[in-house]
Amino acid sequence: MLDKSHKHVSCEKCAVRENGIFSNLVNGEVCEMDNHKSCHYYKKNQSLFVEGSYPRGVFCVNHGKVKIYALGDEGKEQIVHIAKEGEVVGFRSMLSGEPYKLSASTLEDANICFVAKDDFLNMLDTNTGMRNAVLKELSKELGERAIFITNLAQKSVRERLAYSLMLLSDIYGEDPINLTREDLANFVGTATETLIRLLKDFKEEGLIDVQTRKVFIANMDGIINLAGGHR
Known about the structure:
The chain is of the alpha+beta class. The chain contains eight helices and eleven strands. The strands form three sheets. Strands 1-8-3-6 form a four-stranded antiparallel beta sheet. It is globular. The two termini are 31 Å apart.
């Protein structure tokens, strides 16, 4: 359970730092970032940044999950990514010098660290390993977004749900997938009513098990085959 009273997390002792772009920092740089960053407790559904605003820095997820999403004409969300522990969000717009093209908010109670823009850019200038990690992350994201868009355009809703469950299984690891039906529908790109019906079908087919809003993968091979045959 997240300790709401403990907001500061030491970068040196952070268990998830090695999962992200800050893994290449050496001891002195880790201490420097520790001195410049701030850590904050966020409640579920609390905003980190909104589309159209200008970035002031980057957010590193220490605990919890964060959804990155766009808003459609009628205010419906399309979730394009879910950031897990160790991921850094908000640096793409900062590097381009443009306003955010997407919004971000917490999916659950979370502890998130913030590094101001000048401090982050200074680390990029002085640390080749971190700069290479950012370039690698941007390249990886470009490929993933291309696949994501292709899936939305060409796959049926059943196939998109299977593909989404496959991605979410990687994000949640050993834990069950724990999203509201609306958020899951917004990740799949379908109506909530359709999502609920398909989850029932998947359960009857033995692909998943459902306990309240939590989804457990019961047949990963079946999910992978339905999603397109590869992870």
